[in-house]
Structures are given as structure tokens and as C-alpha cells.
Amino acid sequence: MEYRFLGKSGLQVSALSLGTWTFGGSEDTQHIGKTQVAEARELVDICIEAGVNLFDTADEYSLGQAETVLGQAIGKERRDKVLIATKVFFQMGPEIHDIGLSRRHIIKACEESLKRLNTDYIDLYQAHCFDALTPLEETLEAFDQLIRDGKVRYIGSSNFTAWQSMKAKSIAAKKGYQSFISQQVYYSLLGRDLEMELIPFAVDQKIGSLIWSPLAFGLLSGKYKRGTPPPAETRLVPGAESFLPIDMERFYTIQDVLEKIAAARAKTVPQVALNWLLQRPAVSSVIIGARNAQQLRDNLGAVGWHLTVDEMKQLDAVSRIPDTYPSWLQRRFASDRNPMVIV
């Protein structure tokens, strides 16, 4: 397993980490997964044996069940051997303050996550989404207090825009608060929007990027074929397209190249898709999810080898998205004046 520093912090994370959205399984997330403690412990065992040291969850996953299952799967005896990341923002109860990034909600949510995870501290506590109704000063002060209290080691953001993250960074510097060291962002061959702003921001500010849904909700798993019905078990339930915009014709074009490279390299389609991500700028760790041990072991096969320069170019070309302004203008000077523009 390869290890990378998370941003400019001293925290080293495995290039692949395990996401736990499949853990628990509340009524509205049955299609995502419903992994319980016994199977979760097997997945954690496989990860630790492979060198994975980061496990990502969120209070919102199955309304706390995922945190509970993960805490039991890791156990007290090996808590200090791994890193646990969780998040706060989404609605966790019926009260008006059970959502968002207010001081009240952050402090309460952290204490509840600690109980569910059965731990005294969280290695990486992340703002799960931007809260435009709460001053960033209040949010950052609350996170800073949690670090000072010893309940949290590091903090990060998730699903922020570049200007929101830069504003947070500036406020933290001005106020003397601890700053976000990472951003958890959606990135895949099917979703490259963040290359316009978020990746250049991460490169410039030395922010580590943790990648969620690297296989685009399972579309890049190799199970979806042109002209055939989707697999029985899928995360892309009706209505999912409103959450993750999908151009199926573009997907099939990318899939064709993935299958060609996978066959030539004796790898699987998801291994190739994950390996492409591991070679992108500012990527610290790619968060993989798995319904079972077989899926997990296959995804773990994405490390220990590298796509060639030509293979990367093929995938870059087939998955490239149209430039937006001002990226299309700045790209003209990418080689000499704007090296952080993704080419």
C-alpha cells in the first residue's frame, strides 16, 4: 500500500481508504447497502491486512448506524492503529438545530458520533456540506474548540466550492483557528467538473483531496453494458440521475476505452478507473466502497501498478469535459503561466 500526506499536514493516509456508506442500512438507504457488524469486521480485516489505514463515515449514513457498525468492526483493541474520518451537516433529528454547521449542532453531533464510534477522538472531522446560513467564523471556531478539547485531531471540508474553502482558510488564518487540511470531493472519469476550480485550489493551497464515489455510483464497476439491463443490485435507483447527472452515451464511450485497457493489462475495469484517479493531481486517497469481500479485494487491486502515459492520455481524452470560462482562456497558457490548469 502507498501512503500519502494529507495536504500539508503530517497525517499520512493510505492511497485507498474504505468508505462506509454501505454500513448499517436504514430504510431509505437499503439500495446502497446494509452491511452489519460481522461482515463489516471482515471488510475492515481485509483492509488492514492490505495496509489501508483510513476509514471514512458520516453521522448521516443510515442515520448513525454506519458509525455504530464501523466502531464495533474496528474495536477498541485496534483503534489507535487506524484513522477514522466522519462528517457533520445533514439532518440528524427533528429539531431546528439538528442540521447545519452552527456551533450548537457541531458540538452536539461530534459528541454523538464519538459515542456511536465508541472512541475518545476523531482523526478527521469534516464539514459535510457548506452552510450558507451560519457564519464561517462560528463554524471554524467550533471545529477549533473540538481540536483544543482533544475530541478531534484534524478538520476538513466536503462538497465546498473553491471560493468557500478559500474563504474558510482565510478566516482561520486571521482568527488563529485550525484550518481545513482536506477536501472530500466527487471525482471520477464520469465527473471531472472539480478540475476547473477545486483541484487547482488544492494544488495551490496544499489541500489533500479525498475522493468519494470514484466509480460513479457503480457505473464504472464493469457491470453496466451497452444494450443490456442494469444489474439487479445497483445504487442507481430511479431518481438517482437528479443527484448524479449521467450522460449514458458518454459513459459507454468511456467504458469502451476502460475495457480495452483492462483487457490489455489483465486488470478489471474498476481497477483501471481507480488507478487513473490515483495519478491525478492533489489526490491523497480514493475512498472505495464494497458490498462484500470480493468487491473489496478487487478494488484493492488498483494499487501496486501504474497506467502508462499513453493509457492515461486515452482516458483523459475520452472523459474530458468542455471547458468553462475562464478555464478555456487560461488553458492557452497552461504550459508557461498557469501550470495548475488541468491539461
Walkthrough of the structure:
The chain is an alpha/beta fold and 343 residues long. Helices cover 36% and strands 14% of the residues. It is built from eleven helices and ten strands. The strands form two sheets. It has an eight-stranded parallel beta barrel with strand order 3-4-5-6-7-8-9-10, surrounded by five helices. The protein has a two-stranded antiparallel sheet with strand order 1-2. Helix 1 crosses helix 2 (65-74) and helix 7 (248-265) crosses helix 8 (269-278). The mean pLDDT is 92.
Strands, helices and their partners?
Layout: E1 3-5, E2 12-14, E3 16-19, H1 37-50, E4 54-56, H2 65-74, E5 83-88, H3 103-117, E6 122-127, H4 136-148, E7 152-158, H5 162-175, E8 182-186, H6 198-205, E9 208-212, H7 248-265, H8 269-278, E10 283-288, H9 293-300, H10 309-319, H11 327-330
Descriptive keywords:
343 residues, alpha/beta, TIM Barrel, 8-stranded parallel β-barrel, two-stranded antiparallel sheet, 11 helices, 10 strands
Query: What oligomeric state do the depicted chains represent?
Result: single chain
Uncertain ranges: none
The CATH C-level name is Alpha Beta
Q: CATH-wise, what's the superfamily?
A: NADP-dependent oxidoreductase domain
CA radius of gyration is 20 Å
